[in-house]
Every structure is written in C-alpha cells, then in structure tokens.
Design goal:
Blueprint lengths: L9 E2 L2 H11 L61 E3 L6 E14 L8 E11 L2 E4 L4 E5 L3 E7 L10 E2 L12 H4 L8 E7 L4 E6 L4 H4 L5 E7 L8 E10 L1 H7 L15 E4 L16 E3 L4 E8 L5 E5 L5 E5 L2 E2 L10 E4 L4 E7 L6 E6 L16 E6 L6 H10 L1 E2 L1
Parallel strand pairs: 1-23, 2-6, 3-7, 6-11, 12-15, 14-22
Antiparallel strand pairs: 3-4, 4-5, 7-9, 8-10, 10-11, 12-13, 15-20, 16-19, 16-21, 17-18, 17-20, 21-22
Length: 404
Amino acid sequence: MNDDDTFGRNTTSRRGFLSVAAALGTVGIAGCGAPRSDASASATPANTGEGGSTEGTQQVEQVEEWSGSDSTAVETDHPYTTPRTTIDLDETDGAITMSTRACRHQLLGDESRGGPWELPEVWAWETPETDPSVPGPLLRVTEGTDLEITYDNTEHNRPHTFHVHGLSKSWMDDGVPTTTGRQVAPGEEYTYEITANQPGTHLYHCHYQTQNHLDMGMFGILRVDPEGYEAPDKEAFMTIKDWDTRLSASMAGGDVSFSHRDRNPDAFTVNGRCAPYTFHPERGSPLIVEEGDRVRIHYVNAGYESHAMHTHNHGFTVVEKDGGVIPESARHREDVVPIAPAERKTIEFTADADPGVYALHCHKVNHAMNGDTYPGGMIGGMVYESVTDTEQFASVMETAGYEV
C-alpha cells in the first residue's frame, strides 16, 4: 500500500511498463472539471437491520447542484485502496480469511488527465496477506475444491456477509440475511463452507443491505477453473461498475443526501478506475498482447445498469456465460456484447489486427465519460507490445499519468 495520501506521476522505461503490465496479468479519457463543494469531517452512521431503509442517521443538506467531482472534496482519513491482487486458493487448500476496511478510492489519479477524482469512502475487501482493494481480490481455484471462506468482521462497524453466485451451497452458507437470518456482526466471524462445484467466472459480494454494501465496493470475482483448464496466451478479468458518487460522499459525512430511488450514476469504471487511469500499468489494468495471441477476457458486471461492451477492430465469440460453456455450434462472431447486472460473460479472440492501441469500452457512450467530459469512464485498453515505442502510445500513457 502507498503510504502517501496521493499517487504522483510515475516515470519508467518501455521495458519497465511491460514488466509491470505482465505482473498485473489482468486488465481499462479525460476528467471532470466540475466545481467542488466544501465538506465536513467523516461521520460514522448508525446501523439498522437488514430490512431497514437506511444505514445512517447523520444530518446532511442537499447540495443544490451536485457534480461528481464534489466527492473528492469530502475529507476522510481512511487509507487508500490498492490494485486488486490474485489469490490462488489451490495453494491454501481452499481456505481464506476476508474482512472489510473503510478506505478512500481513486477513480482518477492525481496526474491523470481530469484527476484527481476519488470516492472518499468505500468498503474494501482485504485479507491478512493483501491490502484492501476495490474490486476485492480475484479468488482462483480448481473445480472440486472444498472452500472455507472465513469472514472476520473485526475491522468494520457494520454487519456483512459473503455471497457468491454460480455455486451450489447449503442454505445457511448462502450469505443472505433476508432468508437465513444470519449475518456477521461487528467483532464476530463466520466460516462459509462452499464447494467449487461449478466451473466458470462468478461474482461474490456482501448481501447485507445489498443496495448499499454492493454499491460501496464490496464485490469481487471468484474464478473456478475446470480440471485440465487450458489457459489462453493472455487472460484478463474485467469488473465493470457504475457508481453514483453521492452515496460514497454521504457515507463519508459529506453535505449531500442520497436515495437509491433517485440513483443517477456519474462514474463508470473498469476494475475500479475511470479512463484514462484504466491505462495506468500500476494503478489501472491495461491488457498487453503480442500478435497472434489467443486472448480471453472475463467480464463481470458488479453494477446496477447493463453495459454494451465493444472491442475495437477485434471480433470475438462468447465462450462462457454465468459459468456455462457456450457450445461451439452456438458461437458466432460479435463485436458488442450486452452484460446485465451480476452477469458474467467470457469472450475470446485472436490478436490479429493491425498492431496498435485499441479501446475496449461500453458503447452506451455516456458511460464512456467522466462527468460531462468525453472520453473517460468505462474504457479499457488493449495494447500491442510492438507499438509501445510509438508517440501515440506515449501520449496515451501521459493522459493516464504514467510517463514512459
């Protein structure tokens, strides 16, 4: 985790960029210059039950003309999130302990175009071995492994649960308080015993007061590889998400009110970042390919709106949906794929286009914006290694706040 309160511009060589991008292993253009409001110190809302309508009792006043960048001015002393890590559960015999920590989260870095832009409070997943992140750590395991997922709620002041899509499990390990009456209160822990019985890419999230907890960043990916899984040349996991920044600001004590009945997303992210920060090799998640690579991208929608993900200059086929393999006879060439809330789709293609820098973005074009500024938002990037010494590549990296 970065000990400083800001992330400055990084300078490195082309070789350094490639090594950093390779280490990430996963993958996404200008910012919001709206005025900011004054903000109060962080407040700690009171808890209510699973069926309650709100979680907080803080008194706030509505900002007359709220703009997304106003959230940056809400001051908290939380630590910053760090980029998502990957945890191989095969190496731990399926056992992991997870918890939640209140953090700040940068949508755009200080030196990226349009930055800084941040959410003053998110609820980030962490483990004893990894720093808090949004999305949470990528959990990867082989089919058939018995999982013991211990949720340790000693670092947060609200009840939480662990719920995962796609896997069959016992009733009491479903992680849904509404139907089980069970949640993990502050200061308590609970171990969910779940078998990785369905290969595929699955969403996990907190299911306590889901309208708030999912929207505050408590989501991640659990990938179950089938026995004998044949990995492609390049593989990326992309979590897409829409945010209404008023929720984060209100939870952090800002002078803004929020209702999910009036939710109006103003931030759109790939793996927790808005473009152009998505292209930053240390803070974002660009996908680096070589000519002829077989590429597989796993999309997971952790938001509340559907998104139409488009690949520039590369047709693909959808090979998996929600853990189900699409028969070859049903596959056909596409270049736009709709992904509904909580839906997972895996696409596959060959990197056989004219080498360059290509966008992978939502084609609801207002989702590819930061505030009123285009381009931005839900734009990921795919870069051919052979063009990383070009002026065009250097220009893209400059907008991301990364100097090659």
